[in-house]
Amino acid sequence: MIFRQLTFPATGCASYLIGCPASGEAAVIDPLAALGADEYLLEAADQGLAIRYVVETHSHADHLSAGRELAAMAGATYCLGRRAPAAGFPFRKLEDGEVLRVGKIDLTVLETPGHTPDSITLAVTDHARSDDPWFLLTGDALFVGDVGRPDLLVGDAALDVHDESARARELFRSLHEKILTFPDHVEVYPGHFGGSACGGVNMSGKASSTIAFERRFNLALAHPDADAFAAFVRSTLRPLPDDYTTIKRRNLGLLPDGARPANDAGTALAPADVRAALAAGAVPVDLRSAAVAAASHIPGAVMLSFSREALVRRARALLPQDRPLVLVADPAALGAAAGAMLRNAGFAVAGYLGDGMDAWHRADLPVASLPTVTVEELHTRLAAGEDARLRVLDVREPHEHAGGHIPGALNRPHAAVGRWAADLDRDHHWYVACNTQNRSGAAASVMRRLGFPNVTLVLGGWAAWSAAGLPVEAG
User: Fold this and answer.
1) pTM score
2) Nearest alpha-carbon partner for 59 in 144, 137, 157, 159
């Protein structure tokens, strides 16, 4: 599992990115406008993930959400609890007990009303690790050291549904009949920490806990009945959040959103414009994962899987700086972010393909593919020995190769492909591998641009080979 807690300490807000590396899918929970939708999109791309679900644990009143914007940018499904008030936008209503599947990860919906009528908790199970729940995303129901406040009413019967007293009783039941029924070892990740106004004075600055610790030390949970609980919560509340009625209405689409700053990171190009740029000498750069890009890409594209940490470094090693670049990304909005990074590094960027490869396919323009092979298929071919020209090319760094590699693999670091490619026999069938497939995808695509006729990408690379228990050579 890939797990990221993205926080905004100034307001004590926490949000989450959860992804399955095997499927490349992800869900984002409670994204914050203070961080910006772009941040979640970029964080997912850094991990090789595509966002499939954007989930709100409730309709927020203390901070603006980036949920709708992120869902639109990522082409993801936007989800709220089934009791969410009527909003000025479409969303998927989540039922109690419903399961959102993200590859091998299950997010099970638990209705936990009280802070708001539509509040939900997500029980997260990583089946690659265990079939039992690992942790809870409790939203504003349970915090570290505290619980959600039940009094964020906005003076609108359609939005408030229940009064403060009824909400406090609901919250008591949600905590004791749902959340605290989980085993002691289950971890708790809330929607707030520190000085957030969504809880009381006992909220901890620590942003995670366990069921056992909260059951033992959370003062609000020590009260034996709903009335005593409600009285304690009311007596320990912080001041109400500033302008919370406006914030909630805006999050529900009942007021217009504030203007988003203009994005000057690049130009979205139509397929015809991309084709014209390529005819004038531009280089296509495919920023999607190597496995996806290999299946269908613009002919001649360099496959440079997006990563904020590695993008500029790999571009300087593998791309010409005397020719403009045309970027392809999924979602396409990543092209704008990547364009800004590459421009700042001195590259000329003509723009990015608006709507990504879907637009290219709709225009019925030429595509190319790069052959791929699984590690099991490669092992079978090597064992059969039927292709005397088959060679494995390991494009990891020398120290990685020395620590273990596919038997017989030739080692050439991917960043130097422009130098060592001339020394390779073009009559061989080159099977290119790295640790996964991102560096090998880049090297293989450059080799194709340099005229190598027989290049195949090894899916999963050394990580998949060693995980499959296939023969290993070291040194």
Assistant:
1) 0.81
2) 159
As a whole number of angstroms, the distance between CA 112 and CA 117 comes to 8
For residue 367, being part of any structural domain is answered with: no
Residue 170 is encoded by which pair of tokens?
Answer: 């609901």
Give the distance between the most distant pair of CA atoms in the chain.
Answer: 81
Number of neighbours of residue 362 by Cβ within 10 angstroms: 10
Query: Residue 454's closest CA among 371, 385, 393, 387?
Result: 371
* C-alpha–C-alpha distance, residues 167 and 418, integer Å: 65
Name the DSSP letter for residue 353. E
Q: 């504030």: which residue's tokens?
A: 258
- Does one domain contain both 198 and 108? yes
For residues 210 and 314, membership in a common domain is answered with: no
pLDDT digits (tens, 9 = 90+) for 68-123: 999 999 999 999 999 988 778 899 999 999 999 999 999 999 999 999 999 999 99
Domain count, the chain: 3
In residues, how long is the chain?
475
The predicted-structure confidence for 272-323, as pLDDT tens digits, reads as follows 999 999 999 999 999 999 999 999 999 999 999 998 888 998 999 999 888 9
Query: Order of strands, edge to edge, in the sheet holding 77-81?
Result: 2-8, 13-20, 25-29, 50-55, 77-81, 92-94
Residue 24's closest CA among 44, 48, 53, 1? 48
Cα separation, 442 vs 324, whole angstroms: 18
